[in-house]
Amino acid sequence: MTEAIQIHPSAVVEEGARIGAGSRIGPFCVVGPRVEIGPHSVLHSHVVVTGNTRIGARFQAFPFAVIGHQPQDLKYRGEDSRIEIGDDVVAREHVTVNPGTEGGGMLTSIGNNVLLMVGAHVAHDCHVGNHCLLVNNATLGGHVRVEDHAIIGGLSAVHQWVRIGAHAMIGGMSGVEADVIPYGTVTGERAHLAGLNIVGMKRRGFSREDMHAVRAAYRRLFLADGGTQAERLAAVEAEFGEVEAVRPLIDFVKAEADRALTRPRVKGGAGDAS
Q1: Three-state secondary-structure class, residue 66
Q2: pLDDT at position 267, please?
Q3: From CA 269, how far away is CA 77, in angstroms rounded?
């Protein structure tokens, strides 16, 4: 037997919206006609979900979260872009998620098991992976890619087009202007690479051997004397290319080799680490 859908009398669920079994739409919520929300989801109250938006199962949204209104991009001309959100995602109070644009692939996506804390913003054409955390007031500019298990600290801002690698940790109040490697920890008003997210790796079950290999690869890539980035990367791949835990780091840097990376801070000044 299909579980009943509960819709508060003050909520507005427009004709055409599809709400999954066992879901609850709370007081003063608005759900647009092209929205699909999976089963056992809850819009607690004063939530807006609109646009061409598809959300998976067990979604929760708290008061004043807004999902699906047009992007904050002056180049947007009303194109029929969309949002896709996976299962077990939580959007806390005042979270905003904007759909894609023609210039960015027409899609904003969020994976499974993601927590968007109070005031977090996911801009147009962003892609957030699985098991990610955006802490209070974390902001993603347009076209940002966040890989699995990454954490974006509170009051941090990630510049447009930046990539955040898997298992990376962005410290609170950081301004991130360049790509962050997998496992990297960055911090600072203009963020610099401050090491590896070893705590996160331990929590996710990485072996001691894997962590040692990732640390050695990191040192070779960013802290070794001499050589260009390409030469250092080639050395890392030659030594660690068969180590499964190191492979995401190698692939991330190789994927867009012409892009700037967030780097360690040089003693006595900013720039490439030696």
Answers
A1: strand
A2: 63
A3: 44
Q: Is the pLDDT of residue 273 over 70?
A: no
125 is catalytic: yes
Q: Is 67 exposed, middle or buried (0-12, 13-18, 19+ CB in 10 A)?
A: buried
Helix (H) or strand (E) holding 19: strand 18-19
**Cα torsion 101, 54, 114, 62: sign:** positive
Token pair 């180049």 is at which residue? 75
Told to judge if 87 belongs to the known catalytic residues of this protein, a careful annotator would answer no
Beta strands across the sheet bearing 42-43: 6-7, 24-25, 42-43, 60-61, 90-91, 115-116, 133-134, 151-152, 169-170, 184-187, 192-196
Strand order in the sheet with 175-176: 12-13, 30-31, 48-49, 66-67, 96-97, 121-122, 139-140, 157-158, 175-176
CA distance 200 to 202: 5
Which of helix, strand or coil describes residue 53? strand
| pLDDT score recorded for residue 219 | 96
Query: Active site residue: 46, 94, 121, 124, which one?
Result: 124
Residue 42 to residue 121: CA distance in whole angstroms: 20
Whole-Å CA distances, 254 to 132, 170, 260: 23, 22, 12
For residue 266, the model assigns a pLDDT of 74
pLDDT in tens, 220-271: 999 988 899 999 999 999 999 999 999 999 999 999 989 999 999 976 443 3
pLDDT at position 6 over 80: yes
The active-site residue, picked from 142, 154, 165, 184, is: 142
Choosing from 73, 88, 125, 148, the catalytic residue is 125
Burial class (CB in 10 A: 0-12, 13-18, 19+), 272: exposed
Q: Residue 159 and residue 22: Cα distance in Å, rounded?
A: 39
